[in-house]
Amino acid sequence: MSQWWKEAVVYQIYPRSFYDSNGDGFGDLQGVIQKLDYIKSLGADVIWLCPVFDSPQDDNGYDISDYRSIYEKFGTNDDMFQLIDEVHKRGMKIIMDLVVNHTSDEHAWFAESRKSKDNPYRDYYFWKDPKADGSEPNNWGSIFSGSAWTFDERTGQYYLHYFSKKQPDLNWENEAVRREVYDLMTFWMDRGVDGWRMDVIGSISKYVDFPDYETDDSRPYVVGRYHSNGPRLHEFIQEMNREVLSRYNCMTVGEANGSDVEEAKKYTDPSRHELNMIFTFEHMDIDTKQHSPNGKWQMKPFDPIALKKTMTRWQTALMNVGWNTLYFENHDQPRVISRWGNDRELRKQCAKAFATVLHGMKGTPFIYQGEEIGMTNSKMPLEMYDDLEIKNAYRELVIENKTMTKEDFRKAVAKKGRDHARTPMQWDDGKHAGFTAGEPWLAVNPRYQEINVKESLADEDSIFYYYQKLIGLRKQNKVIVYGDYRLLLGDDPQIFAYTREYQGEKLLVAVNLSEEKALFHAPPELLEDKWDVLLSNYARERLDISGSIDMEPYEAFMVISRAKDSTS
Ligand code: NOJ
């Protein structure tokens, strides 16, 4: 099978917030079709479409009630077939979101399952008796707060849900469940879908003895190591590969919660026949204080050294085994410039700086809608957030457990709340940023008049064109796709610099990730080479790396040294 996904750049669409073609305030598939030429012009070759299947939308479509039909606000199955076709016509590919750790509680399987203990669908989910005192079967927590178990009066048992109680977990131990999943995958792949992003795939295998977590604090419910990497995880993925994936020339990327590099090798080593690549959370967790009852909301300041260390660990570990994803943003991870950088007076430089760090690395880059124009986190009072993760966490941490003050929670949500990634795409400076002719389901970011696609396309120095160049450089230079990675200046608190090497070519990437100037000194072994500037966000045409370089705030550059014999 060809490995086209190694040379690809992916553009992620969160359809409800992308473009609304019919004025109901909710993005749709026809809206995506209308914007395909825009994505193509950026240079991306693959689209990852977040879930568009039928769903009560408790978790914005990550709660699916029918895997074979499209949610009506997004359109129809025919719209989806048309989208696949239009994507292919433009020489691009499309992957969908496979959400099969859980379904919606409104899925027909769960409706059956909850009816009686002897229903044929009972074992599609996990049902357990209460403990003797009536409480939950164990102390596992839901990632969206509270217990991972909900009691169902009808049969007097609890069912398991790692996310909201409207997202019951599927029982992958049951072969019939696995068969259903493979069938629905085949259904879409036979209709042209080019692969899958697999939602919380790291959780599909459960520790079926359901051991309690040991706790040293007063937390009633814990989310921890039992929630991922269960004993049959890789066996299940290998089976899925055998039964479905191996029959298609497809791309697969697993959302691998709880994975470290050793786990990543298991997923992505091609000789194991599992997945092409995974999303790790390790580099996104560098601003979280570990082992706090407040989970991801317990923030610590951004530290470039921690980012370098973590990303380098992944670059190095997977260098000759497996493959990395490269991402800073998605629909769960808000705008990186607002979270770790400067989204005010240095917004443009900063967006280009983070883009350079990422797009110079080895792996498949993922661009999240709006990242390419430097969209920022929004301004919202707490009451305006829509996301159930935020609402539940507020209730649990601030109101019930009182482990966080309202002010600390507000600050954390301003940085990390998922809704910041979900505000409508800013197309122009008109009403609702040109996203909809109606009332948007979530308020548009008030900065839309300054930050929008129209403005970005009109400015030749824009973030959009910088991304376009980064993508173009990846297409033209194999060293960016395949080169070996080596970190430079590991202890420098401001500069993220590294080299890539491939068949005699060398790439040097240096980025000042701070608001202060920084001095860059190339290590002596690089001084013998002759370097040409590939890209610079401060319009430098020449760079003499033999001296020290006085880097401006958020300055980034990429220089290349061609193979010595390439001129002959
Ligand atoms: C990960 C998805 O990215 C997120 O948006 C969702 O809430 C959970 N999985 C549950 O499906």
Give a brief rundown of this model.
The chain is an alpha/beta fold.
Structure in words:
This protein is an alpha/beta fold and 568 residues long. Helices cover 26% and strands 15% of the residues. The protein contains 15 helices and 20 strands. The strands form five sheets. The protein has an eight-stranded parallel beta sheet with strand order 11-10-9-5-2-1-13-12, with helices on one face. Helix 10 (347-359) packs parallel to helix 14. The longest helix has 15 residues, at 175-189. It is globular, with a radius of gyration of 24 Å. The chain starts with 9 loop residues before the first strand and ends in a 7-residue tail after the last strand. 1-deoxynojirimycin binds next to loops.
List keywords for this structure.
single chain; 15 helices; 568 residues; binds 1-deoxynojirimycin; alpha/beta
Please write out the topology.
Blueprint: E1 10-13, H1 29-34, H2 36-42, E2 46-49, E3 53-54, E4 66-70, H3 77-89, E5 93-98, H4 108-113, E6 127-128, E7 149-152, E8 157-160, H5 175-189, E9 195-198, H6 233-243, E10 251-255, H7 261-268, E11 277-279, H8 304-317, E12 325-326, H9 336-340, H10 347-359, E13 364-368, H11 388-400, H12 406-416, H13 453-458, H14 463-476, H15 478-482, E14 484-488, E15 495-502, E16 505-512, E17 518-520, E18 532-536, E19 549-551, E20 556-561
Parallel strand pairs: 1-2, 1-13, 2-5, 5-9, 9-10, 10-11, 12-13
Antiparallel strand pairs: 3-4, 6-8, 7-8, 14-15, 15-16, 16-20, 17-19, 18-20
Helix pairs in contact: 10-14
The chain binds 1-deoxynojirimycin.
The site of 1-deoxynojirimycin has 9 residues, from loops.
Pfam families: Alpha-amylase, Malt_amylase_C
EC number: 3.2.1.10
Family: Belongs to the glycosyl hydrolase 13 family.
